[in-house]
Amino acid sequence: MGFQLRIxxxxxxxxxxxxxxxxxxxxxxxxxxxxxQKELEEWFKSDELDPPSKSSDSQLKFIPPVSxxxxxxxxxxxxxxxxxxxxxxxxAQCYKHLDAVPDMEVTYQYKNMRxxxxxxxxxxxxxxxxxxxxxxDNVGKNASLCIQAxxxxxxxxxxxxxxxxxxxxxxxxxxxxxxxxLTMNIHYPVSQLEVVSHKPQQQTSFIVNQxxxxxxxxxxxxxxxxxxxxxxxxxx
Length: 236
What we know:
- Helices cover 6% and strands 58% of the residues.
- It is mostly beta strands.
- It has 2 helices and 18 strands.
- The chain has one domain (2-24, 66-233): Immunoglobulin-like.
- The chain is globular and about 55 Å long.
- The protein has helices spanning 37-45, 83-86, and strands at 2-7, 10-15, 21-23, 25-26, 61-63, 72-78, 88-98, 101-108, 113-130, 133-152, 154-156, 162-173, 176-178, 180-187, 193-199, 209-211, 214-222, 225-233.
- The longest helix has 9 residues, at 37-45.
């Protein structure tokens, strides 16, 4: 499940298992040497089509907040009473600090998705829906896109509990992973469900806040992040 951003010969993939967020930049030429992160960043900002080289580091690492603008994914999931029986939840998603490019395609790859609509855009000349994708023309600096949809991503386990699995969230450039800013808010019917557990566990730079009916976190990281929240029905 997820979406892809396609830009000429460069493909930006934002993949979501439940809610996606990956960025893959794929260039159609072989790469052999290993560049520094600074070299890759400078290449991406330049007009050159040939990347300097590739590197590999897929390990998840939570990091302190990044001061410079970086891709920010803001997600809100609404689990309704009806979600318990049918798995459909509401999804509101915004992306800030998109890269300035002439054309971009955002393709969602959820197995089951409906009612995809554009709620707002900024510094984007034109945006329109085509199937399960959003087409963007003339994306400017500091551009943002917000959408709304319904997705079937709440799963019932054999033991009767429910789980919401999100990911992988990652911002990938060739084989290198770059800082990603993720904000998540999960609303659930407190009269029907209670939180059992979550993954990853609480740790520095990944703090999960729990209040009645709401789970939230705001984190910066590199590598790939998967999250899993398990719920159980309250005793009647």
